Amino acid sequence: DAGITQSPRHKVTETGTPVTLRCHQTENHRYMYWYRQDPGHGLRLIHYSYGVKDTDKGEVSDGYSVSRSKTEDFLLTLESATSSQTSVYFCAISPGGQGSNEQFFGPGTRLTVL
Amino acid sequence: AQSVTQLDSQVPVFEEAPVELRCNYSSSVSVYLFWYVQYPNQGLQLLLKYLSGSTLVESINGFEAEFNKSQTSFHLRKPSVHISDTAEYFCAVSGSSGTYKYIFGTGTRLKVLA
C-alpha cells in the first residue's frame, strides 16, 4: 500500500468551529488531492496541490482552504464547519507525469458536523 | 472538461454469474480511464486503468474493461463473480496531460448473492 495516512480518522464537531484534517505521505509524490464522498455523488474534488505551496481549487471548494508547506503534508481546513460538510474525506496522492497519473488513496476521515 | 456517467447505482447478481458495470464518459481531449473499487469502510483501490495501447485491459482478479472511443465507454466486466467482489465500483476519467485531476462517476454498488 502507498504510504498515506490521514488524521484524525473520525471527528465530531459543532457548527461554526474550525476543523483541520491532515494528509501525510511518505512516497514523495508531487500531486496531492482532497476529495469528499457523499452518497449519490461519488467523489468530488475539493482542492489539489501540484507542489509545495502550489494549490488550486476543485469543483466543491467553497468553505474549504488548503495548505502545503512541505511535500509530505497537505492540510484541509474547514474555516467554519457547517452540517453540509458532514462527509467522508479522502486524500489521494499521485506522482504525475505521462503515463503515471494513478492516484493512491488514504483510508479516509469521517467528519460529522452537528 | 470531462464528465462520467455510471447509470446503474446498484447491481445485484448471483455468485458465479457474469456482470457488467457500465461507464460512459465525455471529454474534448484525450483521456485516461480508471476503475476503482471500494470495500466497506475502506479507501479506494485501483482495479485497472487505460492509458494507451490495447483497448482491453485486465486486472489480476479477473475483471476486464474495454475502452471504446466511438461509444465513449469503458465498461467493466467479469465472467464469474464471487461473494468477495461485493463492493462499490467507481469509474474515473482524467485528461492525459496537465494536472491529472480525476472526475469520478457516482459509483455502482455490486452486491453478489449466494
Describe what this molecule looks like in 3D.
The complex is a heterodimer of chains A (114) and B (114). Chain A is mostly beta strands and 114 residues long. Helix content of chain A is 0%, strand content 57%. Chain A has no helices and eleven strands. In chain A, strands 2, 4, 5, 6, 9, 10 and 11 form a seven-stranded mixed beta sheet that branches. In chain A, strand 5 and strand 6 form a beta hairpin. Chain A starts with a strand and ends with a strand. The mean pLDDT of chain A is 93. By secondary structure, chain B is mainly beta. Chain B is 0% helix and 54% strand. In chain B, the strands form three sheets. In chain B, strands 2, 5, 6, 10, 11 and 12 form a six-stranded mixed beta sheet that branches. A four-stranded antiparallel beta sheet of chain B has the order 3-9-8-7, with no helix packed on it. In chain B, a hairpin with a 4-residue loop joins strand 8 and strand 9. Chain B is globular, with a radius of gyration of 14 Å. The relative contact order of chain B is 0.34. The model of chain B has no long low-confidence stretch (mean pLDDT 92). At the A-B interface, strand 4, strand 5, strand 9 and strand 10 of A face strand 5, strand 6 and strand 11 of B.
- Biggest β-sheet description of chain A: 7 strands, mixed
First-residue to last-residue Cα separation of chain B: 41 Å
Number of strands of chain A: 11
Strand proportion of chain B: over 45%
Kindly report the greatest chain-chain contact and the residue count on each side.
A-B, 27 and 26 residues
The SSE string of chain A, one letter per element, is EEEEEEEEEEE
**Main beta sheet of chain B: strand number and arrangement?**
6 strands, mixed
**Global geometry of chain B:** globular
> Uncertain spans of chain B, ≥5 residues at pLDDT below 50?
none
Gyration radius of chain B, to the nearest Å?
A: 14 Å
Taking the alpha carbons of the first and last residues of chain A, their distance comes to 33 Å
Estimate percent helicity of chain A: under 10%
Q: Which strand-content bin applies to the residues of chain A?
A: over 45%
Averaged pLDDT of chain B: 92
Helix run count of chain A: 0
Poorly predicted ranges of chain A (pLDDT <50, ≥5 residues)?
A: none
Q: What is the tally of helical segments of chain B?
A: 0
Structural class, from helix and strand content of chain A? mainly beta
The averaged pLDDT of chain A comes out at 93
